[in-house]
Amino acid sequence: MAEPTIQRSSSEGHDHELKEENIEKKKDSSANPEFFSCMLQPAPADSDPNYIGIRRFLLHRKAESAVLRRKDWRCNGKGYIAYRNYISRPRNWESLQIPSRSSTPGNSGRWMPSPSPVSQLLESDSWNSLKDLRSPSQASQASQALSRTTSFSSNASDTDDRPRRRAEPAYSFVGMHCIFDQCKAVVTVIKFGHMSSDLLAYGAADGSLTVCSVSMPPSVMKQLIGHSKDVTDFDFSTNNQYIASSSMDKTVRVWDISRGLCIRVIYGVSSQLCIRFHPVNNNFLSAGNAKKEINVFNFSTGRTISKTVVDGEVTAMDHDHTGQLIFCGDGQGCIYAVSMNSHTGALSRTHRNRSSSKHRSAVTTIQYRTFSLLARGPVLLAFTRDGSLSFFSVSLEMQGYLTLRCSLKLAPRVHSIRASFCPLLSLEKGEYIVAGSEDANVYFYDLTRPRNTCVNKLQGHGFPVIGIAWNHGENLLASSDFGGTVIVWKRAKTA
């Protein structure tokens, strides 16, 4: 008697082929050298031995995926909001029979939720003031506390898993205004011109400085080539005719933007980490270096006028609006107020604010602002690599004495990520900060809210977001990432 033959259906044969194909893919991924280079990365002695390798691996996979998605989406020609809904869709989106909701810039100009339940978590929270507190008495006590000089802190990660409601119009963006992606290195610092709405510049880790115009059509105006190592910081002169830049190559360079030429080189003995033009007397340049020094240079001659020494590497700085004070942060998390004579350039230390963190972390952002509704006067923002955002009120009568008003603890950073005030938005209510993150998103925070501090975020980068800058008028926000891409976001018009 003949043995019965077993016949496989076409579907079973197809499933078998898919299984074999998946096995081959797993073998290929396990032999991938990038996989081993990420997983076997040595960790510092003071950290979790498994943390850095796994984190680098996850960031590499996330960045690669986002870049491919964005590259595919460029062929479609639709707006950013549609792209955001596209990347937030669930895996089984094709099988979901949910009516589509249009979210084009031509509608309300706000972030519209996608059909995905996940994307609803990405929407920004509604603007509730201190009424979020449990009882009216607590709310009144908190409002009275804010009207005085008391401070409170808030702990939050970069993401908030709680469901959120629609975005506040002040934080609504209609999409990407333009993208500059010709740079192949990390864009370390990005700024708009002084009181300018369309002049943008950014420095990169390959030593280049790029000057752009974001008016339609956007264009690259000048490539400033001269630094041999990372551009750590730069600043525009008051008339936007010159740029002064600092670099890891131990030099400070002054550039004529219109001609695209370096007109002066000031050589140092250590890496130059931050630089600012004097706001009143543009003949003075203040620069901080890795030798723990703050130097004041003469713009015309390049000579050092005066200097003062602090306790750590000077990693960030900013002037007050009068030019009589310099606020700087060092590599140990301390913040200094330094008095400066606007006529002679002479420096003298006045105050030091010690870091409250046990692990001393470098300051990546120091930004001064002339007025805040919360402080009823000038304020200072400080951001450190361990994720600490600190908001100080400044006493000009006491030579820059700082009082901590509120603070926010975010996830620690590996890169030197920067943050910025949202001045015009903060005049409505609250105190709002925008910052980059290593999960490739741009986050908005309200420092006055003890809970639900994150109020919005922008998605579109494929790498960790390093730099943040507002233009004059705050209708455009520029962000730069680790992959060399600069995105200029366009805010929705509000009544």
Automatic annotation (TrEMBL):
Residues 135-151 have a biased composition (Low complexity). It holds the Pfam family WD40. Keywords: Repeat, WD repeat. PROSITE patterns: WD_REPEATS_1, WD_REPEATS_2, WD_REPEATS_REGION. Residues 11-29 have a biased composition (Basic and acidic residues). PANTHER family: WD REPEAT PROTEIN 26-RELATED, WD REPEAT-CONTAINING PROTEIN 13. WD repeats lie at residues 224-265, 458-495. This is WD repeat-containing protein 13. InterPro entries: WD40/YVTN_repeat-like_dom_sf, WD40_repeat_CS, WD40_repeat_dom_sf, WD40_rpt, WD_repeat-ST_regulator. Residues 1-31, 96-165 are annotated as: Disordered. Residues 1-10, 96-107, 117-129 have a biased composition (Polar residues).
